[in-house]
Amino acid sequence: MIAPIGPRVGVNAAFFRELKEDDPDLLSLVSRLERAASASRPGAERLLRAADLADRMRRKLASRFELEETFGYFERPRDVSAAVCDAAAVLRAEHCALYDEICELADALAYLAWSAASENINCDAEFFAMADFCNSLRRHEEEEDALIAVAWENHVPRLAEDVTPVAGPAFAAR
Ligand SMILES: [Fe+2]
Hints:
Elements: E1 9-11, H1 13-22, H2 25-38, H3 43-72, E2 73-75, H4 82-113, H5 124-154
Antiparallel strand pairs: 1-2
Helix pairs in contact: 1-3, 1-5, 2-3, 2-5, 3-4, 4-5
The structure holds fe (ii) ion.
Fe (ii) ion (FE2) binds near residues 95 and 140.
């Protein structure tokens, strides 16, 4: 794993735990997207379903990533191992690529779904891309969960000044 160049990044494990417990719908939405991408339904019905779910995922990730980057990740942590900082920097940096990917897919599916000839359009490329996106997002969530567990064990912030929220330079600054 090669950490992006920039300030050291820490993890507010307490905030992340609360965020993920309060909003467990993300992985369920991933599963529904995977089913939509692999379902053997008639073309138009499958497209409408996938386009709707992709749009929901786009909106879900916009709010989730903004919260994570504003309150979950923070810069210049104290007493945090280099391994945790490197993993946090990599995971935070992945948000932009994941969000760009779901926006592109949502736009492509919406266009295809509402085109007059959607019954006969071959959407295999979009559905393969959707399956890849779901795998990437699932892995991102798993690695983030593992990082939160390590950060929780190693460094639970106890003082308000221990965590200074700094909006991530990548996603939250858009
Ligand atoms: Fe994340």
